[in-house]
Description:
Elements: H1 9-23, E1 32-45, E2 64-77, E3 82-88, H2 93-105, E4 113-117, H3 126-129, H4 134-141, E5 144-148, H5 159-169, H6 178-194, H7 205-211
Parallel strand pairs: 1-4, 4-5
Antiparallel strand pairs: 1-2, 2-3
Amino acid sequence: MWCVPKVDQQFxxxxxxxxxxxxxxxxxxxxxxxxDEKSKQLLQDKRKPLKAREGKLKRADYEYLRNGTxxxxxxxxxxxxxxxxxxxxHRKKPDFAQFIKELSEKYVSAEKIHIVADNLNTHFGKxxxxxxxxxxxxxxxxxxxxxxxxxxxxxxxxxxIELSIAGRQCLNCRIPTEEKLKREIKHWxxxxxxxxxxxxxxxxxxxxxxxFKYRNSGQN
Length: 220
């Protein structure tokens, strides 16, 4: 959080935009969704692990086979306690555009979908126009408003919190195949969604101004 190179005007404006968005009460007509992605290396044991016995941990040999990597897209609606994950072979522009399209289809009754994302070069409108027809791309983007984190401030994206939890609870073991990865991800996603596990964000605009020592977004 504190690796901030410079709190310039753009940094403050983007930070306050996100924090103001997070402070708004839950509104199903305008859901706030945070998205991010991460890679997962597929690893297969060379020797069958020994099962855990009473009072003993499961034991696995240190050697393993590499079966490539997969990308995991994650979107989380913090106040509703809902998330959507997808495993892909790549994280190129078409992969991102398709993921956001599928995500938007889950919110057909929403008037506007607010999506928080970082500044990765795939996370912009051009990805949709390179993937879909102009008519379809326009239809998707007309319903979406992207909110971008400041540079070097991905900690402002709550999707990082959810990915960290997934890393500890679901991805912290060797997973040998894409099929098993999808099963594990689906099980974890469904459990958290069924229990409506939310994220309680506490850092506010007021806190940011105090921490970074400025009065408002228009002052240095």
